[in-house]
Design brief:
Layout (H helix, E strand, L loop, with lengths): L2 H9 L5 H7 L2 H17 L6 H25 L1 H4 L17 H22 L2 H22 L6 H10 L1 H10 L4 H24 L1 H7 L4 H4 L2 H24 L5 H23 L9 H28 L1
Helix pairs in contact: 2-4, 3-4, 3-9, 3-15, 4-6, 4-7, 4-9, 6-7, 7-8, 7-9, 8-10, 9-10, 10-13, 10-15, 13-14, 14-15
């Protein structure tokens, strides 16, 4: 009996279903699925329940594929960050080859199924969104420039386009504005987080804005993007593309978002543990998108 082979086998990582689920970044996927669903429900037209469910499933699986490929590529740097070192790859519960195959498999499955179930235009958008997140953001922008979140924000802005395109087969002004809203929301959302986990990004070698340009520059940028984002959030109502339910919600939520951003902009706190304004903005930013997109769906149902 070859004991060395047995010893090698004993040392091989054994991943279970929870590790594969963790690769898909389920918490991030929740927001992706929700905004994609809202895009689908806000679109003119109707899909049978089974087809609509399949479309949302494909968006979720595509997002999971991007998350898995992101973790495959960043396994080494994830091991140097406190908040990511317990992920399946840096923790040693899974080998990188399995993560790569899993991510590629999910990518092809989601794009092919979406094309067959709805239309190939929506499938093409899904394919572009996965490639953008993995290649443009993860491999190119994130390790090279402090503007990684600004440009890379497009990766998370595709779901409303996907939901809309799955129903209509095209893209009009409203879903483009929803794309722009998430695109502009991403920098203040992630920079608020980056301020109080700055040391983690520095240890990993990522040139995040607080690491490269400092905290005060980051705070000013958060405020700037929040103001522009708030203006874009109200545009669908101002242009007559939505009704008052969405419009009033957008005004109220965006005013609250901007006030929190002002608090961050005026803050001079340097201790991450004491950054209450930054944590408050980060938490509210998540609720902001859920509530705003929820109001969009309610608004469309009221108008219908």
């Amino acid at each position: 009996m070859n004991t060395s082979a047995l010893n090698t086998a004993d040392l091989s990582p054994v991943a279970d279903w929870r590790d594969f689920l963790a690769l898909t970044k389920p918490r991030v996927m929740t927001l992706v699925v929700f905004t994609g669903l809202c895009g689908l429900l806000a679109a003119p037209g109707h899909l049978p329940f089974a087809i609509a469910f399949t479309a949302i499933l494909c968006i979720a699986v595509g997002a999971g594929a991007a998350g898995a490929l992101n973790q495959w590529y960043e396994a080494d740097v994830d091991a140097r960050m406190k908040r990511t070192r317990d992920r399946p790859l840096p923790a040693g519960r899974m080998d990188r080859q399995s993560a790569l195959h899993f991510g590629i498999g999910l990518s092809f499955f989601s794009v092919l199924l979406l094309g067959l179930a709805t239309n190939w235009f929506a499938a093409a958008i899904l394919a572009v969104s996965i490639l953008f997140y993995v290649v443009v953001y993860t491999m190119w922008l994130k390790p090279r420039t402090s503007q990684n979140i600004v440009i890379g924000g497009a990766a998370g802005a595709f779901p409303p386009l996907l939901g809309w395109a799955a129903v209509t087969g095209d893209v009009t002004l409203l879903p483009v504005l929803l794309f722009a809203l998430i695109f502009l929301w991403t920098p203040p959302h992630f920079w608020a987080l980056a301020l109080f986990v700055r040391s983690d990004y520095a240890a990993a070698g990522f040139p995040m804005l607080p690491v490269v340009a400092g905290e005060q520059v980051t705070r000013r940028q958060i405020l700037l993007y929040s103001v522009v984002m708030s203006a874009v959030a109200v545009l669908p109502w101002a242009l007559g593309l939505t009704g008052a339910v969405y419009g009033v919600t957008a005004v109220v939520l965006s005013a609250a978002f901007t006030l929190l951003a002002v608090r961050v902009g005026l803050s001079r706190v340097v201790d991450p543990a004491a950054m209450r304004a930054e944590r408050a903005l980060f938490k509210f930013s998540i609720a902001y998108l859920f509530l705003l997109f929820g109001a969009l769906v309610v608004d469309r149902l009221v108008l219908a």
